[in-house]
Amino acid sequence: MHMADALISPPVGGFMWAASAAAIGISVKKISGGKLDEKKIPMMGIMGAFVFAGQMINFTIPGTGSSGHICGGLLLAALLGPAGALIVLASVLLIQCLFFADGGLLAYGCNVFNMGVTSAVLGYLLIYKPMVGKTLTKARISIASVAACVVGLQIGAFLVVVETLISGVTELPLGAFLVAMQPIHLAIGFVEGLITAAVLSFVHQARPEIIETSIAGEKIAPSVSLKKILITFGVLAAVIAGGLSIFASAYPDGLEWSLEKTAGTSELEQEGPAWRAAADVVEKTAVLPDYAFKNGSETSETAGTVTAGLVGSIITVILACGIGFVINGLRRKKISEHHT
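The structure assignment produced for this chain is given below.
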């Protein structure tokens, strides 16, 4: 559901940049104020890489000619809390945009809000957390995961339509676009919910403290080791990004499919200084555009996908962990200055 720059106007793009920046700023303030669990900083990087890799695998929606991929916001929120989850997902989307030209730079604020705030914040706080309750069971985790993923993705899909309509830079009919977007993302949200439920059920069985402390807003006890979980998801991220990603569905994703159904093409373009400036930045920074080698041949397509998956996962680990350590360092410095 990564929006391209051609769907939105500069004012809408700027407004959504500001809205997402405010949401990220609030998240940083929350975890820098003592909500950051130091033991979960490595998990920010590893789970960020896992979500990055997971988003590379589009799964086919039977009978539609469309595909979808996980957003990962709810999964991250269940493990890191909504504030940490939004920061990690924003990092993933930034890496996808700048290094792989996946999602426009002008539309970055839209993508963070539509995929991050809707699932990691709204879906988690309004649906998942109340449904799971204080007594965690596999059944509650599964039901809450599916419900929250479906609701979060429905809100995100609706916002894509609204942002496109308000921008007024396309001639997409609102009704037709909405009718295409909502049902296909209902199916995608259901599949993501099942995947999220399976992952969270595994984590709860292997190390329940991770999910329990996120629900309670507490920190994991120093005696609890996360080593096995980190290794497990680190290996899974590498396997998915460096191997399974080449088997991703070739069908267009839900947004592209909806555009083709409505406009007859998903390759929309806009002319203007803002769109050109955004495109120029991405063109200079994207080392593997569309997760492939520049000017690569068809025979190198697989190698490009594998390389992009592994490189992107590594960058995600570095960026997400780096942000966590910086925030923690600033928090420690603030505490030290307060005591002196």
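Interim note for the steering committee: The first helix runs from residue 10 to 35. The longest strand covers residues 59-61.
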